[in-house]
Recover the amino acids of this structure.
């Protein structure tokens, strides 16, 4: 299809009068990391690709922490992408923090190893409205047609096969051989196509976030960073009060991304408002000095699919594939909090399956199932299967609310010099456990669960 | 310290409000609901309980996160959809 042809379609759709009559090889719904990756790969293979986005621009509806792990994944698609993309800082420090109301005990990891501070780097902080817009533009440059401000309401099914989408415009039907649903955590398409059920409130977490403007020089000095280095802080414990979840603080170029994440069922049980927890977090003695002087630029919120392996929908139907958050590809294990990389990898895998299906002109479930085969070598399924026990464990009450407090308190006692006899660590541990009414058998059982979740 | 009120937070987010609400609640069902989960979980604080047992609702400053829909699914008092294309929340920094 010539570029002129594409313009006629976009104009026709935009004036809401003429039904778009083109037929596409691949229709991608949602221009987030999964959708743009899928559109980019399919367009490069010479397919006629439509990328539909409901926001004014790609990224307008997207929120993430946003620490983007998986720089190497994108580097395969766009070599040296960080030189062209709107990135904030590369992450060479990670700080995992256990908190009580008064204390913070952290594992502060910093590396100057090549994998962290040299291309292709390990991770970058990004701002999604800027990054997603850039990434979708790469798909456009490869030949995909981007249609923004357009809601997709349903799929068109004929003889049990998805053959297109219904867009919320007059006469809004667009036909295509393969529909790739990358429409996010609340995937209407996956539900309408009968591939996903309603999500449960314990499977999703709500993230609320503030972007706080702060001078570049202040950020460098305050976080001990040089040049464009960045740091990712992740917190667990009293920071979310009695809500199961965590908090984060990431350094951008001249701002901080600060937020809390709470399991929705737990927010309901605790009757806590997410933005109040965010304020509580910012006032913690370990956090307040880090955010001091920051000027609020934007407040945002988004749902996160956190149950991983156990909430995945059916990923393949005749004529249709599901990728990214819509497929639940967010790995939240405490150790890893990643989604953008899996979104991109699943988008790439979906595009490859679509290319294969177009080549053999067979869009049945069996042919498109190449997608799920590709999710293994792309490390998506491998990672989610390996850590399938972690999300449930991470959201356990003891791990969330008791142990961080206990460790923080125990460390306080360990380091306090107050004229009393010092105790060795084991008796001290038992003393703290008694204070917190923790039973040895619970600790043993939790240690087993830790091992099962992370060790083997 | 950078403490901000909820109003101050909401002022920083841009909304292009559609005339047509994308969320509809059934006030009768709300009156019989004992959980009222929407009141706590909504990050934009769009659900306000009233004295008579009903819930006052605004859709204008909605983040489109879908949390209210998920917590209300048992009660079935809430219909939820995305606003029309180009309307609703637009993030610039997040």
């Amino acid at each position: 299809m010539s570029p002129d042809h594409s313009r006629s379609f976009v104009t026709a759709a935009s004036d809401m009068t003429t039904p778009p009559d083109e037929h596409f090889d691949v229709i991608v719904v949602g221009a987030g990391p999964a959708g743009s990756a899928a559109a980019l790969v399919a367009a490069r293979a010479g397919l006629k690709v439509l990328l539909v986005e409901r926001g004014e621009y790609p990224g307008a509806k997207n929120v993430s922490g946003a620490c983007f792990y998986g720089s190497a994944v994108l580097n395969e698609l766009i070599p040296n992408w960080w030189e062209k993309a709107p990135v904030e800082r590369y992450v060479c420090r990670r700080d995992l923090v256990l908190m009580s109301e008064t204390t913070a005990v952290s594992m502060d990891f910093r590396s100057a190893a090549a994998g962290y501070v040299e291309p292709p780097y390990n991770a970058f902080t990004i701002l999604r409205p800027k990054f997603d817009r850039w990434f979708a533009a790469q798909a456009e440059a490869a030949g995909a047609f981007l249609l923004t401000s357009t809601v997709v309401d349903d799929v068109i099914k004929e003889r049990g096969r998805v053959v297109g989408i219904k867009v919320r415009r007059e006469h809004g039907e667009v036909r295509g051989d393969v529909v790739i649903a990358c429409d996010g955590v609340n995937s209407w398409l996956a539900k309408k196509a009968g591939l996903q059920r309603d999500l449960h409130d314990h499977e999703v977490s709500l993230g609320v976030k503030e972007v706080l403007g702060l001078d570049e020089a202040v950020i460098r000095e305050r976080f001990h960073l040089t040049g464009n280095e960045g740091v990712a802080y992740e917190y667990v414990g009293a920071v979310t009060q009695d809500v199961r979840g965590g908090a984060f603080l990431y350094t951008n170029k001249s701002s901080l991304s600060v937020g809390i994440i709470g399991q929705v069922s737990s927010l309901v049980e605790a009757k806590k408002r997410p933005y109040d927890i965010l304020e509580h977090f910012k006032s913690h003695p370990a956090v307040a000095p880090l955010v001091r002087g920051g000027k609020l630029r934007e407040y945002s919120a988004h749902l996160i699919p956190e149950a991983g392996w156990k909430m995945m929908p059916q990923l393949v139907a005749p004529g249709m594939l599901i990728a990214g958050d819509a497929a639940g590809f967010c790995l939240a294990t405490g150790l890893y909090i990643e989604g953008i990389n899996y979104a991109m990898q699943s988008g790439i895998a979906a595009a490859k399956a679509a290319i294969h299906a177009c080549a053999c002109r067979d869009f049945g479930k069996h042919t498109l199932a190449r997608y799920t085969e590709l999710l293994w070598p792309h490390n998506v399924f491998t990672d989610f299967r390996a850590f399938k026990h972690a999300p449930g464990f991470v959201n356990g009450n003891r791990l969330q609310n008791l142990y961080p407090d206990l460790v923080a308190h125990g460390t306080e006692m360990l380091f306090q010099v107050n004229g009393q006899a010092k105790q060795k660590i084991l008796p001290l541990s038992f003393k703290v456990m008694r204070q917190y009414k923790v039973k040895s058998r619970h600790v043993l059982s939790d240690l087993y669960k830790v091992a099962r979740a992370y060790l083997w | 310290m950078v403490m901000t009120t909820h109003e101050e937070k909401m002022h920083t987010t841009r909304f292009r409000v559609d005339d047509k609400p994308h969320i509809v609640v059934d006030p009768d069902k709300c009156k019989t609901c004992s959980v009222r989960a929407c009141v706590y979980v909504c990050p934009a604080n769009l659900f306000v309980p009233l004295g008579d047992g009903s819930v006052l609702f605004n859709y204008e400053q909605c983040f489109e996160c879908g949390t209210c829909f998920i917590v209300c699914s048992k009660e079935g008092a809430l219909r939820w959809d995305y606003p029309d294309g180009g309307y609703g929340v637009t993030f610039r920094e997040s």
About this structure: The radius of gyration of chain A is 24 Å. Residues 1-19 of chain A have pLDDT under 50 and may be disordered. The longest helix of chain A spans residues 340-360. Chain A touches chain B through 60 residues (CB under 8 Å).
